[in-house]
Amino acid sequence: MAEVINMPRLSDTMEEGTVAKWLKNVGDKVEEGDILAEIETDKATMEFESFYEGTLLHIGIAEGDGAPVDSLLAIIGEEGEDISSLLNGSASASEDADVEEASEPESNGSEGSDEASASAEVPEGVEVVKMPRLSDTMEEGTVASWLKKVGDTVEEGEILAEIETDKATMEFESFYSGTLLYIGIQEGESSPVDAVLAVIGPEGTDVDAVLNAKPSSGKKESSSSDAKKEEPKKEASKDTSAPKATNDGQRIFVSPLAKKIAKEKGIDLSNITGSGDNGRIVKKDVEGYTPAAATPQASQKAASAPTAAPASAPVILPVGEEGSEEVKNSQMRKTIAKRLAESKFTAPHYYLTIEVDMGNAMASRKQINDLPDTKVSFNDMVVKACAMALKKHPQVNTTWNGDTTRYNHHVHVGVAVAVDEGLVVPVLKFTEQLSLTQIGSAVKDLAGRARNKKLTPAEMDGSTFTVSNLGMFGITEFTSIINQPNSAILSVGAIVQKPVVKDGQIVVGNTMKVTLACDHRTVDGATGAQFLLTLRAYLENPVTMLA
């Protein structure tokens, strides 16, 4: 269904707005959050974003044209949708509004004059800030947070508060400078549009008198002053809050805060390239601006000028083009994601870490590898130690089946192998019956065929326990997700040389951290801890694995 977007009231005193620039054309696709147009208010040029998705079907106010708040700005809907009834409805509504406005002075003129005489006006220099209407359908707003508190000094362009509308939470900046004298709506509270949000003015102002004062209203001026209205309007169009223009007449779009900083630093905005949407100049562009090399005339002029304190070096912020691409997930990647998510969110994981002295293991491995035609890795020793520890702690070698727990009397250790597309886990069948050299040969063969995608499904099925080793990458400690239907997985870190205490003396030692992830449905904490103690005993005394 098509949505009618009206000219929003983007400041508390805005009566009409001018479309400075459209960033979408009729027929363009519009996403929620896209910037539709840049709108000039009575105080600044602001970006107006869409709160709807669809196709831009109609533009009601052309670039450079102004219109009162609530005028038809645009219509967004489905491509090809009939919007004639909406266009006719908006025309009749505007006619009704004109009739109502024309009759207003006749019925309320005398009453308004009596009220004006009965109460004082707001003192000069004091501004009453009202709850703004930040979207075209907003009826009330909630103050999400105040960024200033009573007594703080407020500069024009600074953010006063974050306001929740019916569609988004938006920053609301101050259009005045002064002291925040009063907060009318506390954090978390909601109030209708036009409720008193805050009062800004000179320090020491009587706030009660301001709140009780009657603001002057331009609508109730007599008709005799109509001729005088044209001249103030012309002057208002020259307000410095309007977009700047270069010497060649091109419009420069700049945020109010950026414009203020540029004015203070004496920077010509026409020399700055904006990094905001559609080249809009924002705060960081001004702060990061570095003037180009001076001309000879400028250099001569600068040489004759009195010396001043050196300015602080500008902060140069990177500017680039964002980019991304979407790559279709392989079947392997999707299977890994599905299985690991099921494991993580169905099995209650907990983790146990223990440190192992690998001094004897290093010496034993060297002796074994000195033998002809023999090659054993530390990972092979870990796999062998796990298989032997599982035979002593059968609770860890189990599978949770809901109403039952399956105790596996055989030991099939899966060894995680990284491949280009993800991770595969070839399985060493009956690992407890294999020697260290047999484990070394089998792992090397399985890992090689895994990387070449030559493994059969049977060689990746049936594990009762899994070992994952990232020590070769320098990772000292990590945790893994259980490879179901296993009840546990061991994460193996790197061997690290560090000071250790032996027999009351500090000596250089070689240690390795291993972390056991357990499924708490089948493996209790004490059981997991006992398994790790047995595993450490085997690794610290490798000769026991050769018996």
Automatic annotation (TrEMBL):
Residue stretches of biased makeup (Basic and acidic residues): 218-238
EC number: 2.3.1.12
Reaction equations catalysed: N(6)-[(R)-dihydrolipoyl]-L-lysyl-[protein] + acetyl-CoA = N(6)-[(R)-S(8)-acetyldihydrolipoyl]-L-lysyl-[protein] + CoA
All copies of domain Peripheral subunit-binding (PSBD), residue ranges: 253-290
Biological process according to GO: pyruvate decarboxylation to acetyl-CoA
Enzyme class: transferase
CDD domains with a match to the protein in the record: lipoyl_domain
Spans annotated as Disordered: 87-126, 208-249
Comp. bias intervals (Low complexity): 105-121
Free-text remark on how the cofactor is bound: Binds 2 lipoyl cofactors covalently.
Gene Ontology CC terms: pyruvate dehydrogenase complex
Listed SUPFAM superfamilies: CoA-dependent acyltransferases, Peripheral subunit-binding domain of 2-oxo acid dehydrogenase complex, Single hybrid motif
Cofactor: (R)-lipoate
Acyltransferase recorded as keyword: yes
Protein name according to UniProt: Acetyltransferase component of pyruvate dehydrogenase complex
PROSITE patterns recorded: BIOTINYL_LIPOYL, LIPOYL, PSBD
Domain Lipoyl-binding: 2-77, 126-201
